[in-house]
Amino acid sequence: MKHIARKRFGQHFLTDGAIIDGIVQAIAPLAGEPMVEIGPGLAALTQPLVERLGHLHVIELDRDLAVRLRAHGHLNVIESDVLRVDFTALAQDLKVPRLRVVGNLPYNISSPILFHLLDHVAVIQDQHFMLQKEVIDRMVAKPSTGDYGRLSVMLQWRYEMENVLFVPPQSFEPAPRVDSAVVRMVPLDTPPVLNLRLLEEMVQVAFSQRRKLLRHTLGRWLEARGFAGSFDTQRRAEEVPVSQYVALVQSL
């Protein structure tokens, strides 16, 4: 029976064989690797991955799709909202140090998923995700560009990232109204030691009024915290490199 894409789950099923091959090549799966796919859908990417891996763990929220996927002999189906999945516990259950995570993420909740995975980054080897292209543009953006913002800082302090593949709307059924792309995210081997929640709060304050100089936002926030160090607040949030945000939060 044909599965009708469900809007509430943000479903757009990948159908372009050439794009699927390109994604699999970018991921480069090896037999026996512990890999988790988020949102396998109709298994367009799942099948070529499991053929190379031998076994694959998949997270699927749609009950009907989960039933279909369970009929496959080489999948461990986790029927759940990905935001409720404890990736650290999953790695421990599988007795592996780190997981590889892939998926065509639902575009309506892509940022919450990325932040959820940030909490489990210690057990992640790498991530390959299909996302809305403009989201990936923001993830990999350099300072002093229009795309550089909160998402850039909150991910770049912890990952090396690159946009590896462009995916046009006609590669999906139904076609989304936006361009898509695939991003590779590799956790840094020696990340800076910092208070993640404090960084999150600080970056949110800094970019809350991105047109204004930082003295109006971050400057006041630093004053309220009794900050005695030096930090140039006579510039806009988008002009500050990730390394300087990291150094500032460490000094607090």
Brief synopsis:
This protein is of the alpha/beta class and 252 residues long.
How would you describe this structure to a colleague?
- This protein is elongated.
- Mean pLDDT is 93; it is low at 2-10.
- It folds into two domains: 7-187, Vaccinia Virus protein VP39 (Rossmann fold), CATH 3.40.50.150; 196-251, rRNA adenine dimethylase, C-terminal domain (Helicase, Ruva Protein, domain 3), CATH 1.10.8.
- The strands form two sheets. It has a seven-stranded mixed β-sheet with strand order 4-3-2-5-6-9-7. A two-stranded antiparallel ribbon has the order 1-8.
- Strand 3, helix 3 (63-70) and strand 4 form a beta-alpha-beta unit.
- It has 252 residues and is α/β, with parallel strands linked by helices.
- The chain is built from ten helices and nine strands.
- The protein has helices spanning 17-27, 46-53, 63-70, 87-93, 110-118, 133-139, 150-156, 196-206, 218-224, 242-251; strands at residues 13-14, 35-38, 56-60, 75-79, 99-104, 124-132, 159-167, 172-173, 180-187.
- 34% of the residues lie in helices and 20% in strands.
- The chain starts with 12 loop residues before the first strand and ends with a helix.
